[in-house]
Design brief:
This protein has one domain. The protein contains five helices and no strands. The chain has 129 residues and is mainly α.
């Protein structure tokens, strides 16, 4: 495995997430029904979890793409899209539906994961595994 590609992809996904959720912070907070006055006990913890999740996601996508045999941007991006459609979109949609979350929250959060997986795939495809 190309661990440099995995780390670069994870960092890029983390930066993408920061930009994405900064741009959509107001509609996301409204859809998630989060009030600004709410202060978590450990405000840094979600950022650590997000960084670890991005790293694991990049590592797993590199593994999936490596099993294809032909590592290139097209295959890696398509793999990211298929994984998003088959696992991320479906899981989030079901969980949010049962939790009674607003549809807009599903759109925003799954859109984020689609962007992250496509970016991770592109980087893995460029660097190779």
């Amino acid at each position: 495995m190309n661990y440099l590609a995995i780390v670069v992809a994870a960092v890029a996904a983390y930066i993408f997430s920061a930009i994405y959720y900064t741009a959509l912070s107001k509609p996301w907070m409204k859809a998630a029904e989060i009030k600004k006055s709410r202060k978590p006990k450990t405000p840094w913890l979600p950022f650590v979890i997000a960084a670890v999740a991005d790293l694991v996601m990049a590592w797993m996508l590199a593994g999936v793409v490596g099993h294809l045999g032909q590592v290139n941007v097209k295959n890696a991006v398509l793999s990211g899209a298929f994984i998003w459609f088959g696992f991320v979109l479906t899981t989030v949609a079901v969980n949010y539906a049962f939790a009674g979350r607003k549809p807009l929250l599903t759109v925003i959060d799954t859109g984020h994961w689609l962007g992250a997986l496509l970016l991770i795939g592109a980087i893995i495809g460029l660097f190779g595994v």
